Amino acid sequence: LSASTSKRYEREIVMSSFFVGAPPWNNTGLVNAISAALNRPRLAKSLFGGYAEPSYPLPPSNGPPGESRTGEGFSGYLASADGERGSIRKAWETAGGPGLGTVIIDFPSVFDPLYSASSIVLGILNETLGSQFKAAVETYTTISKRVLDGHYGNGRAAFWFGWGAPIPGPSRERYLAETYSAGSPGLRVSGAQPIALANDAKNTIGTGFLGIVPWVQQYADVVRRRGISGPPPSPFWNQHRDYLRANA
Fold it and tell me: Tell me, what DSSP letter sits at residue 105?
């Protein structure tokens, strides 16, 4: 029997956040350099075996390719960063990156060591920007509290890397509004149309993503064979609930 394969995305995006209201991350050049160095296609391949796609301000699950690829042409989204490594390192140095000293990256304990995320992420960053990044493993409870307290910034050279909050449904407007907030510069949310939102989201790349940096979004293959029916596929992978409903 012939079959078709489609993608079902995880509701969470792998991301980092930086407190941009105070040094050091109010210097968007530093955040942009980290974003460029942590090459997304390489990250997707090394961390998830290729079962992930680069996440732009509008993630791949929230729109067709023409609208979701708002980051194309920006460093860090290309298939290979080898040719850019020198310019990325220079941008980091120009922004004062080496002066930060050791940069600590917190990884959730459910993410590391299961995925060896710290060794992969640190390997890429230290290779590109210089050997000043170190990992710490914390619980999600600790990381969440630190995010709310502005720990990842406010004079600290630190950020976190892991799964963010679930995407609030397939609505692009709601996702952008909740992620970047209505009052954020460079992004018009109120009354905007989906394509306008996607285009405006592109502006967040040049301003350090307003402190919320998306990396990749995971997906799973869904195979449908002709002649075999099942429940309608949900837009996101949700812990095999389709299977549970089909066999209830």
Answer: E
Render each residue's pLDDT in the chain as its tens digit; 248 residues.
Answer: 577 777 888 889 999 999 988 999 999 999 999 999 999 999 999 999 989 999 888 888 876 655 556 666 788 887 766 678 899 999 999 999 999 999 999 999 988 887 789 999 999 999 999 999 999 999 999 999 999 999 999 999 999 999 998 887 777 777 877 777 655 544 554 555 555 665 667 777 878 888 889 999 999 887 767 766 666 656 565 544 444 444 44
CA atoms within 13 A on the CB side of 6: 11
Cβ density class 10-34: b for 16+ within 10 Å, e for less? bbbbbbbbbbbeebbbbbbebbbbb
Distance CA 67, CA 127 (A): 32
Rounded CA gap, 16 and 5, in Å? 31
Q: Cα–Cα distance between 107 and 230 in angstroms, integer?
A: 38
Global pTM value: 0.84
The answer to whether 199 touches 145, Cβ cutoff 8 Å, is: no
Q: Residue 199, by phi and psi: left (phi above 0), alpha (psi -120 to 50) or beta?
A: alpha
- Hey, what amino acid is at 131? S
| CA pair distance 13, 92, nearest whole angstrom | 25
**CA neighbor of 30 nearest in space, from 218, 209, 216:** 209
The C-alpha atoms of residue 153 and residue 156 are separated, in whole angstroms, by 5
Q: How far apart are CA 116 and CA 18, in angstroms?
A: 22
